[in-house]
Automatic annotation (TrEMBL):
GO function terms (MF aspect): ubiquitin protein ligase activity; zinc ion binding
Pfam families, per the entry: FANCL_C, FANCL_d2, FANCL_d3
Record carries keyword Zinc-finger: yes
PANTHER family documented for this protein: E3 UBIQUITIN-PROTEIN LIGASE FANCL, UBIQUITIN LIGASE PROTEIN PHF9 FANCONI ANEMIA GROUP L PROTEIN
Protein's name according to its UniProt entry: E3 ubiquitin-protein ligase FANCL
SMART domains reported in the protein's UniProt record: FANCL_C
Gene: FANCL
Catalytic reaction annotation: S-ubiquitinyl-[E2 ubiquitin-conjugating enzyme]-L-cysteine + [acceptor protein]-L-lysine = [E2 ubiquitin-conjugating enzyme]-L-cysteine + N(6)-ubiquitinyl-[acceptor protein]-L-lysine
Uppermost EC category: transferase
GO cellular component, as recorded: cytoplasm; Fanconi anaemia nuclear complex
Domain of life: Eukaryota
InterPro entries: Fancl, FANCL_C, FANCL_d2, FANCL_d3, FANCL_d3_sf, UBQ-conjugating_enzyme/RWD, Znf_RING, Znf_RING/FYVE/PHD
Length: 342
C-alpha cells in the first residue's frame, strides 16, 4: 500500500489529508478527488517510487481558487522525468507549488554550492530563472529541449571556472583574520584583512584572474600605512602570478599576517572610542587617529557627529577638521555616506 500526505499550504500544516492508493485506486475524500482530477496518474507514479517518496509527499493544494493557477498535469510529469534523469539526490529543496527547486552541486575541490531554479508554468518551453551565490552572473543557455540536467551541467562548468578564485579567497579566510565581510559569501570578491592593530588591507580579487595583483587599499593611521604603501609600490614588480595572493601580499609588503593560529580576533576588533561598540549597523571603526601614541579608532559616523558638535571644529565641503576626542591632536573625517535607513 502506498500513501501520500497532502499538505494544504496556508493551513499552518494542521489539516493534513491522508491519501491512500490501494491497488492502484485512489482513496480520499470527494473534495480531494475533485482537486486531483487529471493529476491521479502523477500521484500514483510518485507514490510508487519507493524511497524517493518524501520529496513529493508535500503536494501543494491550496485553496480551491488558487488551484486554478496550477500548471497542467504535463508540467508535473515533465518535472518528475527531469528529476529522474538528474538524480533525486541533487534536490535539496522544492517548494509546495513545485515551481522553485534548489539543486546542490559539488565542485572538484569539494565546495558545496546550490543553484535555485524557478520554473515557468510553460516549462520547458520557457527558460527557468536560475540564481546562485556567485561573484559572476549566472548565464544559462536554454532551448525547448533543455532540462534540469542542462542547468546542473552548466552550473558545474561555471563552478569549475571559479575554482581558482575561491581557492585564493579560501586561503585568505583560513589563514588570516578577515574584518569584512563579517560572514563572506561565495559571491564576495572583497576581503579586508588584518595587518595589525587598527591596520588592515582591503583587497578586491579578480574573478577571472584571481592570482593577479588585486586592487589594494591600506587602511589605518598614516604613520603605519605610509611605510606599507611604499613597500607595496616599490615591490609591486615582485608579484608572482604563480603564487597565491596571500603569499604575494606577504612578500610584497614584507609582513606576516596575524592568523587564527597566532592571534585572537578580539585583539584586532578594537571598539569605537565614541560609542564603545565595534559594529555600528555594518560599519566597523575604520577612522584612526594619526597620532602614533594615540591611534584610537572611531566609526566614521560617530567621529563626524562628534566633531560637528564641537564649536572649534571647521568644515570644508564634506570634510570636518577638528581634534581627536582622546589626544586632542588634529583629526579629519569625511561626511559619511547617507544611510538609507536614517
Ligand atoms: Zn562609534
Ligand atoms: Zn588621538
Amino acid at each position: 500500500m502506498n500513501y501520500i500526505v497532502l499538505q494544504p499550504s496556508g493551513s499552518n500544516g494542521v489539516n493534513y489529508v491522508l491519501l491512500i492508493i490501494l491497488h492502484c485506486r485512489l482513496h480520499c475524500c470527494w473534495q480531494l478527488k475533485q482537486l486531483l482530477r487529471g493529476y491521479v496518474h502523477i500521484v500514483k507514479r510518485v507514490s510508487h517510487q519507493n524511497g524517493k517518496r518524501s520529496v513529493f509527499q508535500e503536494v501543494a493544494l491550496k485553496s480551491r481558487t488558487e488551484c486554478r493557477s496550477i500548471p497542467p498535469p504535463k508540467y508535473y510529469s515533465q518535472l518528475i522525468t527531469e528529476m529522474e534523469d538528474l538524480g533525486w539526490d541533487k534536490l535539496v529543496f522544492i517548494d509546495t507549488e513545485f515551481r522553485t527547486l534548489r539543486l546542490k552541486a559539488e565542485d572538484s575541490s569539494g565546495r558545496q554550492h546550490v543553484v535555485t531554479v524557478k520554473l515557468k508554468p510553460k516549462h520547458p518551453l520557457e527558460a527557468p530563472v536560475c540564481t546562485a551565490d556567485l561573484p559572476v552572473p549566472l548565464a544559462m543557455t536554454w532551448t525547448a529541449q533543455s532540462s534540469l540536467t542542462h542547468v546542473h551541467t552548466q552550473f558545474l562548468l561555471l563552478l569549475e571556472s571559479l575554482a581558482e578564485f575561491w581557492a585564493v579567497l579560501d586561503e585568505i579566510d583560513q589563514k588570516t583574520w578577515v574584518l569584512e565581510p563579517e560572514k563572506p559569501s561565495r559571491a564576495d570578491t572583497m576581503r579586508r584583512i588584518v595587518i595589525g592593530n587598527n591596520v588592515s588591507i582591503k583587497v578586491e580579487v579578480n574573478t577571472r584572474h584571481p592570482n593577479m595583483l588585486p586592487e589594494c587599499c591600506l587602511l589605518g593611521a598614516d604613520h603605519v600605512v605610509t611605510p606599507l604603501r611604499n613597500k607595496l609600490n616599490s615591490n609591486m614588480h615582485l608579484w608572482n602570478p604563480e603564487c597565491s595572493v596571500l603569499q604575494n601580499l606577504r612578500d610584497v609588503l614584507e609582513i606576516e599576517f596575524p592568523s587564527p593560529a597566532t592571534h585572537e580576533k578580539s585583539s584586532f576588533s578594537v571598539e569605537c572610542g565614541i560609542c564603545y561598540s565595534y559594529r555600528l549597523n555594518s560599519d566597523i571603526p575604520d577612522q584612526v587617529c594619526n597620532d602614533s601614541r594615540c591611534g584610537q579608532p572611531f566609526h566614521q559616523a560617530c567621529l563626524y557627529e562628534w566633531l560637528r558638535g564641537i564649536p572649534s571644529s571647521r568644515q570644508s565641503f564634506s570634510i570636518v577638521f577638528g581634534e581627536c576626542p582622546y589626544c586632542s591632536k588634529p583629526i579629519t573625517v569625511k561626511c559619511p555616506p547617507r544611510n538609507p535607513e536614517n
